[in-house]
Write a structure and sequence with these properties.
- The protein has 238 residues and is α/β, with parallel strands linked by helices.
- The chain has a single domain, classed as Acetylglutamate kinase-like (Carbamate kinase), CATH 3.40.1160.
- Helix 2 packs across helix 4 and helix 6 runs parallel beside helix 8.
- The chain is globular, with a radius of gyration of 17 Å.
- One of its GO terms (biological process) is UDP biosynthetic process.
């Protein structure tokens, strides 16, 4: 493990929207390629990395249920969307010389391994990136909650939430030009102020298990590495 990194084992939460880039839907190969490029550097330096990926660039369960679809059924469709994203990430990683495994919470043995905690930890110890797909396998749980749950299960040092904004603000920076960005904030404050960093289930899970989280802007190249080295990138929630 390189001396320059503050964290040895990390879980990176990627939204599906992040993979869509400026197109807004589907998978933008350039975005995925840039991401793989950044991840290759930190993995080759010895950081153990797990990735939880969302599916909002293909299908959102909540949006489907808002249109009258059965919520559980809509969530299952959303889980399948995350598997597509996971396979796209795996392809990009392997083109960049990163060994990786997709583990799915819904059994799909032709394209992925089942999620088995001990096996996932073994992959991490061997330097493979573990891409965790299909959420928790349960409807009514978001991929934010999946990220918090897997981060606790895999005993990571930090949860990194990649977004399109450079941290946590006291109000929406797109609507309020005077919005104030926090360098650090407590989970209790996130909950009491109603800041939509993650849903309340995920936030409570991180808080109860003393798991720190870094919320940062994925669109600035090199931010993953900078955050892991302890530079002030985004907002630290603890």
């Amino acid at each position: 493990m390189s001396e320059q990194y503050r964290y040895d084992r990390v879980l990176l939460k990627l939204s599906g929207e992040a993979l869509a880039g400026d197109v807004g839907y589907g998978i933008d190969p350039k975005v995925v390629d840039d991401l793989a490029d950044q991840i290759a550097d930190i993995v080759h330096d010895g950081v153990q990395l797990a990735v939880v990926v969302g599916g909002g660039n293909i299908f959102r369960g909540l949006a489907g249920s808002a249109e009258g679809m059965d919520r559980a059924q809509a969530d299952y469709i959303g889980m399948l969307a995350t598997v597509m994203n996971a396979l796209a990430l795996q392809d990009a990683f392997e083109r960049h010389g990163i060994f990786s495994r997709v583990q799915s919470a819904i059994n799909m043995q032709e394209v992925s391994e089942p999620y088995i905690r001990r096996r996932a930890i073994r992959h991490l110890e061997k330097g493979r990136v573990v891409i965790l797909a299909a959420g928790t396998g349960n409807p009514y749980f978001t991929t934010d909650t999946t990220a918090a749950l897997r981060a606790c299960e895999l005993d990571v040092d930090v949860l990194m939430k990649a977004t399109k904004v450079d941290g946590v603000y006291d109000s929406d920076p797109k609507k309020n030009p005077d919005a104030k960005r926090y360098d650090t904030i407590s989970y209790m404050d996130v909950l009491s102020k109603g800041l939509n960093v993650m849903d309340s289930t995920a936030t409570s899970l991180c808080m109860d298990n003393h798991l720190p989280m870094i919320v940062f802007d994925l669109t600035t190249k090199g931010n993953i590495s900078r955050a892991l080295k302890g530079e002030s990138v985004g907002t630290t929630v603890e």
